[in-house]
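Summary for the steering committee. The consortium agreed at its last meeting that each partner would contribute one worked example illustrating the joint modelling workflow. Our contribution is presented below. We chose a case with several input lines so that the handling of multiple components could be demonstrated. No manual editing was applied between input and output; the record is shown as generated.
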Amino acid sequence: MDAQKLDALRHSAAHMLAAAVLELYPGTKLAIGPTIENGFYYDFKFPDGVSLSENDLPKIEEKMKEIAKGGHEFKRKEVTVPAAKDFEKDQPFKLELIDEFAKESKTLTLYESGPFTDLCRGGHAENTKEIPLDGLKLQKLAGAYWRGSEKNLMLTRIYGLLFATKKELNEHLAMLEEAKKRDHKKLGKELDLFTFSETVGKGLPLWTEKGATIRRELERFIVDEEIRRGYLHVRTPDIAKLDLYKKSGHYPHYKDSMYAPIVIEEEEFMLRPMTCPHHFELYLRTPHSYRELPMRIAELAQLYRYEQSGELSGLQRVRTFCLADAHIICASEEQAVAEIGKALDLIEYIAGVFGLVHGTEYWYRFSLGDRANSEKYYKNDAGWDKAENLLRAHLKFRNSHFVEAPGEAAFYGPKVDIQMKNVNGKEDTAFTVQYDLCMPERFDLKYNAEDGTEKRTFVVHRSSIGAIERIMAFLIEHYAGAFPLWLSPVQVVLTPVSEKHVDGAKKLMEEFKKVGIRVAIDDADESVGKKVRNAAKQKIPYIVVVGDKEIAGEDWMIRVRGQEDQMKMSKADFVAKVLLEIKERV
Amino acid sequence: MDAQKLDALRHSAAHMLAAAVLELYPGTKLAIGPTIENGFYYDFKFPDGVSLSENDLPKIEEKMKEIAKGGHEFKRKEVTVPAAKDFEKDQPFKLELIDEFAKESKTLTLYESGPFTDLCRGGHAENTKEIPLDGLKLQKLAGAYWRGSEKNLMLTRIYGLLFATKKELNEHLAMLEEAKKRDHKKLGKELDLFTFSETVGKGLPLWTEKGATIRRELERFIVDEEIRRGYLHVRTPDIAKLDLYKKSGHYPHYKDSMYAPIVIEEEEFMLRPMTCPHHFELYLRTPHSYRELPMRIAELAQLYRYEQSGELSGLQRVRTFCLADAHIICASEEQAVAEIGKALDLIEYIAGVFGLVHGTEYWYRFSLGDRANSEKYYKNDAGWDKAENLLRAHLKFRNSHFVEAPGEAAFYGPKVDIQMKNVNGKEDTAFTVQYDLCMPERFDLKYNAEDGTEKRTFVVHRSSIGAIERIMAFLIEHYAGAFPLWLSPVQVVLTPVSEKHVDGAKKLMEEFKKVGIRVAIDDADESVGKKVRNAAKQKIPYIVVVGDKEIAGEDWMIRVRGQEDQMKMSKADFVAKVLLEIKERV
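What follows is the complete predicted structure of the assembly.
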């Protein structure tokens, strides 16, 4: 079924939902009922004394189906504003909408479908019979402010799913079920990786030792790999004078995502929302020769961007994050495009370490400049043309999976967005590699060319893995908390059979620690079975039950995460195997 | 010579300086002339048209000596305020001082010494002859605002050194000369370790790749060593709601060193000035058992503290710094004191890695509570008694070098300060280990005891190495920029003999890189001699000149930093030696 048709069916289903609610709960006031990805919702103000729970949804769903089966045609009626107001006289939210629509048009439209008529711009099925009732499910309830503002009344939103077939609905429900299990907020708590504190503030995660261990391994991996590839890792301050962002030209564009300035001795300081101007100031400390270019200035940079409290979500949307950032100062357009290629090589290497497949699990979006939009487009037509043509040719040359996206570029140049699907099946831009036509001018970035003249540089902005917080959210869900060995906070757990094996287990623990294996001991006063189950719940890769035989040096029986059969192996072989797997990041 | 006597001589010399200036530059206005460590200064407003340079200092010094040799007695004269004003009628700064002193006393004192009389509270030699002229040297000129405020007139300050003997003066001058060479601001620039940018802001260092490399090695060393010793390394946000610092009680005490709040959606957020409340909030996420204690929560924490721009100095005094911080949650006073002991073990281990000797190069200051000062003293007499007694006993037991310092404790408990001498010979508290009697109450920190009851915890605050910026300043000066191999940003430099050896050198570079050695190649179009001198100036530990023989695989001749003789060795042996030295941090 094509997307437009499906959308029309979802819209029609929203009307059925309102019709069902009005039959079951007379006197309910209707707000709006648009379609969304996978379905639709409708916002209601229920009569006083009526308080819905999720248990009421099947009943409403039944009523919806009953009405739809009636086979009502959707009939369009054009009416004047006063007529529309008269029709909706008992519906205060609709009256507010009419007043607003009346600013644009003198006539409005109503859509009638059997017992129910709604103020509506249209886009429906011909007949309510067309709605694929097998693919329908009322999903959940939520609170929602009228017009999205917390100053307004809180309404009740009912969400519905609608797919063309029962099979598609079931697949979607199964995916949601799996996503729920993998939800990083849920797993973050169960595995004790991070927490939030009301006193510290919203959107500011506190990482426990376990979560911080994963972060540290990840960060060291990225930093070391980047250094290996010729990046110069630097450290620049997380605050700077407002002047810096005025100089870079970010201030007017990014003002709304920056926090308010802090005044120190009559100067205004900002929490930095981006790293680039900091790296440019560092570049400017001395003159540079063409021999030094391309200069790849990298940093794990803490950035601060304003997010509304309503938008905050676990590690996915936070108020401060650590970006694996870099700015590559180049001598020519060709060098810049080659560097973008190398950045993509790095990204593909890292994605490979996480087992992500290019083309299906992540791909590129080549975002082009909108030359008509002077707000979002830094004027330099020839520069954009050259950059876009070189980049397109490069993406084709390397056989990248990419789609073109006109008008999605940054204001200073075209970019390659790294697109990913999260466990909810939603596509998202994870991070970007950008070509910059503007900053070299603003910061007067130059180099001494081979011919003895001073020349303007070109700049590439890129991330290799995005924000650490966000990739952590992604990885927790990607691995469902069962991190590969090198990232696991506890790699091996030793569970002594009884009190008398605790000392022996402790000695073994020291041996493992000494060679750099993250090992824990579970000496709680519980049965071995319970302890093994606990360790499995914590998704620890290897569990060793330590009894007389293990201490005596006989072969060990090792429980491997996700495997039925235990692994039989000498202690020395096991240690060697663990160390090798850590080193190879398998 | 006793300190009081020497101070009186320095004060007398300040009078001689003013006398000399008045003779040489009639019409000069006098401000103040106190003694300072190692000498004295006097602030002057010279007549219009007179502009002093350092070249004028010998002449003034000669005149001072000439006057002093005159053998004038210091004569005290008590005068009324009007008489004092009349005497100083041509000295506007003195008149301002008289008005101020007049608030406290009706009579003032003048000190006459031959040709010169000054408004002065006294503390002089008997006779100007006593001033040890051999130990006198006018040191430098500086600008200084009248009364230290930039709203006032800028005066000229002349600094003088005065020691009891010529030998002591010369020793001091030699130390200053050495300190100048080792100055971290100077070396930081010469070795390209860090820089500052006016546009980014004062007190906010930007670390180059080389400086950031040293930091990274240092930070990883600290983190890994702490983890090895059972610390749990976490990550908590650098901003938090003001509420958090009100809850901790820091806010009234630390208000002046905190930056102004940032308002986000009607809540006030602060750049954190300390880590402790963040760690306590993390501890509070779940209940804890006595089995988990002591729990050593550690973090490399970015902190923000207000420093006046006039107080900023290189890496030593900055506006944000990264503290190697930890908070140890303990089950009893005894456990807390044992943990302080373990923290001192760690500190002594780290100091040992840097070759610092306990007792001479660093020692402890045991800071006790001032029970009379209710501002600085958290009221809990029994708690302080027990903590101070246990700590004192522990410091004695471990044979630590320590001095006791009554009244120097933190407001929440006694502490052990780690005292060091910097290259200027100045003693400084590098960082501290603190016993906390207060926070466990404020944050209601509890644990489930073995007997089934809930009990109050005890807390130790400690650093292992202090602020990274500050220890970097210290280490740059301590090593005079010649960092040990493991910290050197470039460990080995390859200098090809000629153009035709560049490719061979590059291949060697890749071999070195692969095994984790930080190697650079100097392929500039310059003579080998020049390149070797450049590398030596950059204090690179090993220099290898790469010619036909080196590429062919014959034994290498290696230049070792600080050694006359070259070292002859096969490539394989050299690589093994370098790797071993890095690993052992020699």
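The mean pLDDT of chain A is 94. Chain A touches chain B through 60 residues (CB under 8 Å).
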